[in-house]
Specification:
455 residues, mainly alpha, two-stranded antiparallel sheet, 23 helices, 2 strands, globular
């Protein structure tokens, strides 16, 4: 199936280049080509509906269901491919996927896949039936895109909601679940070093391949005149430019400078590779948790960026609203795990199809969105420096008004034992506390706690 996607796009050569087992600088111990090529399925979908008109958007449904005859559709409806369905029990759902699974609650069935339900409702222009975080892609007073200001591209909002949720959220937690598969195999005794079992290493490499994608090549570098990939790796590189915190010094913004988020994530994937080789499952779990933490940053940056655009009173475009909803959809479960209060504050401003302030009709309250995230950075395991300040203009050396980076010292998010200053406590009173996952806001995650998870 995945080979067909490569041939359809005329990209077989780029895929063949991956055979040396290097994925954006990560040294794979196995051939992960099949999972690398999944980003080509995403690219095929985006090419299919790329005109952003409603006639082309009708092609999304058959492709998504795998009934269009292309031979590549149907994949995303099976995500995550490990942990739900296929005979597995919910017990093998990783703690990182649990955030998404518990946040959405019951919808159409107890094992309903997270992004599958969202995607189908975006395609059919219906309403999601989650326990929380719902979107109304339908009609009426709280319809998703009531203004249709993108002339000639009347389905651009639906398109953005669909493609961004699949590319950056479904793909992200698919990588978490493949890493969980590697952990479960190691728990069962699989160790290349000790027992000559390569299954755990192969699953871990597959997780990395999903995160990066074939379009990033072996070095992960971007050509200033080229295009980005279609996986979470690409999103991190895009957003660091908007926040002018690319590179190891967090202060660059040209296209050929990689995101520090990707540097951190790929370093953690690499460390986990050796743990998988040795069969050290609790250390793999530790690295996965850190990967999950830091990989949320681009989704948070995306939500902040589009919330700002829609807060100015000048942008009510379907495109911005579709992107805002899709990024928030991926970020909110992580905030909810830390604070139901913070998650709700963000959700009411970013909901697709209406909230306290109906995005796309009235301006978004940007401060509520920003504080909803910032007040929970410490619990999320990220910092003000990781997210940075929103510039959104390569020619500006001044952040957008009100979108400056917070202070890690004031926020208490620089070190595990730090506490926020009184002024931050006061500002965050309505945005912090009441965690969706019990005790999550009190957790100081380290290797000792990772080991205890297997006691």
């Amino acid at each position: 199936m995945f080979k067909t996607a490569a041939l359809f796009l005329g990209l077989a050569g780029s895929v063949a280049a991956q055979q040396d087992s290097v994925i954006a600088g990560y040294l794979a111990r196995s051939d992960a080509t099949a999972h690398l090529e999944i980003d080509l399925i995403q690219k095929e979908l985006e090419t299919l509906i790329g005109n952003e008109d409603c006639t082309n958007f009708t092609l999304a449904g058959p492709f998504y269901d795998g009934t269009s005859g292309s031979g590549t559709g149907g994949y995303f409806s099976t995500v995550p491919t490990y942990g739900l369905g296929g005979g597995e029990q919910l017990a093998v759902v990783s703690k990182e996927f649990t955030k998404y699974y518990d946040w959405k609650g019951d919808s159409e069935s107890p094992a309903d896949r997270f992004t599958d339900h969202w995607a189908r409702k975006a395609i059919s222009k219906g309403k999601t039936r989650f326990a929380r975080g719902n979107a109304n892609f339908g009609s009426g007073n709280n319809a998703a895109f009531p203004k249709n200001v993108n002339t000639g591209k009347e389905c651009i909002g639906f398109e953005e909601s669909l493609k961004k949720s699949l590319s950056y959220t479904a793909t992200l937690y698919e990588s978490y679940q493949l890493a969980q598969k590697a952990i479960d195999l190691a728990v069962g005794g699989c160790s290349e070093q000790l027992t000559n079992c390569t299954d755990a290493v192969e699953a871990w490499d597959s997780a990395v391949a999903i995160y990066v994608g074939s379009l990033e090549g072996t070095d992960g570098n971007n050509d200033p005149g080229g295009s980005y990939g279609k996986a979470p790796y690409a999103l991190a590189d895009k957003r660091c430019r908007n926040f002018q915190n690319c590179g190891p010094t967090h202060d660059q913004f040209t296209k050929d400078i990689p995101s520090p988020i990707n540097t951190q994530v790929l370093a953690l994937w690499s460390a986990g590779s050796y743990a998988a080789y040795a069969g050290n499952y609790w250390l793999m779990y530790y690295y996965l948790r850190l990967i999950s933490n830091i990989s949320a940053v681009p989704l948070i940056q995306g939500t902040i960026r589009y919330a700002y655009k829609l807060s100015t009173g000048t942008d009510f475009s379907d495109k911005s609203l579709g992107e805002l909803g899709a990024f928030a959809f991926g970020a909110l479960p992580k905030v909810w795990a830390c604070s139901k209060k913070g998650e709700q504050k963000i959700f009411t401003q970013t909901k697709v199809g209406g909230g306290d302030a109906i995005a796309g009709v009235t301006p978004v309250n940007f401060e509520k969105v920003k504080l909803g995230f910032e007040c929970n950075y410490k619990c999320l395991g990220i910092t003000c420096k990781d997210v940075g300040a929103l510039f959104d203009d390569d020619n500006s050396d001044v952040p957008k008004p009100g979108a400056e980076a917070c202070s890690d010292v004031d926020n208490g998010s620089e070190n595990i034992c730090d506490k926020p200053k009184g002024s931050v406590k006061k500002a965050c009173k309505l945005f912090r506390g009441n965690p969706g996952i019990k005790g999550r806001d009190k957790l100081k995650f380290d290797q000792a706690e990772a080991l205890k998870a297997f006691d």
